[in-house]
Amino acid sequence: MERGDVMQGQHLNYILEVHKMRSISKAAEKLKISQPALSAHIKKIEEALGVPIFDRAVKPIQLTEAGQIYIDYMKRQMDLDKELREQISDLECLRRGALTIGGASFFNVSYLPGAVAEYMERYPGIRISVIDGNLPEIIEKALNNELDLFLSPSWNMDERCCYEKFLSEKILICVPPAWSINDRLKDWRIPEEIILEGKLSAWLENKENPYVDFKEFREEPFILLRKEQHIGNMMNRLFERHGFSPEHRIAAEQTMTSYALTLAGAGISLMSESTVVKGHLRDYPAFYLTDLDLCTRDMYIAYPKQKYLSRAGKEFISILKNSLSAFEE
């Protein structure tokens, strides 16, 4: 292997995986190649560089100082290569290129489909990839230049990134439709067609008192998401404000799971307005609103400050904002 060959991106992927797994055997399994093949590949890179990349005398395996320098320079080279391709794509008026977007799976499902479909219709030469993950992982990928854009709520923003708001929407209380409490609260129940037809803001303006007192639900069971999830955190703030904690609760990992449990009659959950409208749902619970200062979510499309934002990325941001503009009315 010539010295110039070690600057290829595939080599960095191998080295990074070994560094991440702290084991050549585990990295080989993840990369789906044999351990001897990976060991031989690393040895060729080290021979071409003239220095060892890994210190094999310690367990688990660690990068040498030269190995860290190699990774740092390779990342910078790959960043420059990516920026070059993006700027050339800009000159070609988006006839070809690539765009990678990340976010929590629920955010991706709720906000991206319409925008991605419209974008692909306008720019069929741009390859789009959508990556799911939790927010800290997604931010780290963006800062490592593995993502161009990512979706983020208004909390836990990273100062190393730029944020552009694309949506402000209401979060709805979802109550099992067959529960008798709906008869008692019928004056505050929001007809599902009002939400589906995009008339929620007008309905709120015409109601003298459209917001239900959250304490009305204190004796009911709830479906709870984790506190580090945005809607899970919102539910906990409602409990704190209204001074109660549900005696009966069910823990769920995903927002759509909590919604399905509500439809089955298991408990109360929260759901975003846009998901109800655009989620192609077949059945609906009883909907209510409360404490609008808490139950409003601002959503942002973000990107690292130090990275070049391509024309492809700027155009996607514009399409995303327009695709959800109805919720701002």
Q: Largest sheet, if any?
A: 7 strands, mixed
Helix content: 40-55%
Structural class: alpha/beta
- Percentage beta strand: 15-25%
What is the averaged pLDDT score?
Answer: 89
Assembly state (oligomeric):
single chain
Overall body shape: elongated
Topology, number of strands? 11
What would your notes on this structure say?
The chain has helices at residues 9-21, 24-31, 35-49, 65-91, 105-111, 113-122, 135-143, 181-184, 192-196, 200-206, 230-242, 255-263, 273-278, 311-323, and strands at 54-55, 62-63, 97-103, 126-132, 149-153, 161-175, 222-224, 249-251, 269-272, 286-288, 296-304. The chain has 329 residues and is an alpha/beta fold. The strands form 3 sheets. Strands 3, 4, 5, 6, 9, 10 and 11 form a 7-stranded mixed sheet that branches. A two-stranded antiparallel sheet has the order 1-2. Strands 7-8 form a two-stranded parallel ribbon. The radius of gyration is 25 Å and the shape is elongated.
Task: Briefly characterize the structure.
This protein is of the alpha/beta class and 329 residues long. It has helices at 9-21, 24-31, 35-49, 65-91, 105-111, 113-122, 135-143, 181-184, 192-196, 200-206, 230-242, 255-263, 273-278, 311-323; strands at 54-55, 62-63, 97-103, 126-132, 149-153, 161-175, 222-224, 249-251, 269-272, 286-288, 296-304.
